[in-house]
Design goal:
Length: 184
Amino acid sequence: MHSIIAASEDRMKKTVSSLKEGFSSLRTGRASASLFDKIRVDCYGDKSPLSQVANISIPEARLIVIQPWDKGLIGEIEKAVRSSELSLNPSNDGKVIRIAIPPLTEERRKELVKLAKNQAEQSRVAIRNIRRDGNDELKKVQKNGELTEDEESRNAEELQKLTDGYIAKVNQVLEEKEKEIMEV
């Protein structure tokens, strides 16, 4: 049935976009505002995303400037960046926070590529699980007499084509991220 395939495709799309989102927080040697997407700042007793309390700009390839909208938060922002898992060393002049992005060592690049490959493999497994769920659903519907064996077989083939396509997308996203990480 078409709704089973559509639902499976929707889940596969979400898996790929989740992988892209996960990759955006992997630090490469280049400055990127998306590095700070997961950082929360203690703001008046509340944890707020950094992007909601400051402007993040990238004036140079290896420099990030964070300008808080409220100068009183500069210390909290600096503390949040320091305590994040990004291993960055911010410095502030009372008005803005500057963060120089150090070039990655060869060893760190290889670690990041390994991490990216792990995330991609988890996404491929998730896509295969979605295919399995879809096939199980098709078999159930066929047993209930709502589908002929031929229709079930055609739908299973369509599901396999979708799976192959989305696994290829995962591989493409991984390849792009690997290039980005290994770039000096």
